[in-house]
Design a protein that fits this description.
2 helices, single chain, globular, alpha+beta, five-stranded mixed β-sheet, Ubiquitin-like (UB roll)
């Protein structure tokens, strides 16, 4: 089985809905083309999100990342990298940072 290693980061308070852990090392089966969409919905939401029934809407809205969450692929805005259709590469770093803060 062929796998790629991906680092996933949750910053700006998002770690609170991901078991208070800011960073995960994820192994992804890439025997087929694996996109950021696959990573989000098949790994992050299913395996990393704590209490999905309560926290899903904090992270996901309308089948994409919720507005107010900055998504970076290797420190580049995901809008420059095909967003959900980005094809994951070995050693990618995917970062999600909440820009919404109470106060």
């Amino acid at each position: 089985m062929s796998q790629i290693d991906i680092k996933v980061e949750f910053l700006g308070g998002l770690d609170s809905i991901f078991a208070n852990k800011r960073s995960y090392e994820v192994k992804v089966d890439n025997t087929k083309i694996v996109t950021l969409r696959d990573l989000i919905f098949d790994v992050i939401v299913k395996d990393l999100l704590v209490n999905p029934e309560e926290n899903y809407s904090i992270y996901i809205q309308d089948e994409t990342i919720r507005p107010g969450i900055l998504t970076l692929i290797n420190d580049s805005d995901w809008e420059l990298e095909d967003e959900l259709d980005y094809i994951l590469q070995h050693k990618d770093v995917i970062s999600f940072t909440s820009t919404l803060h109470g106060g």
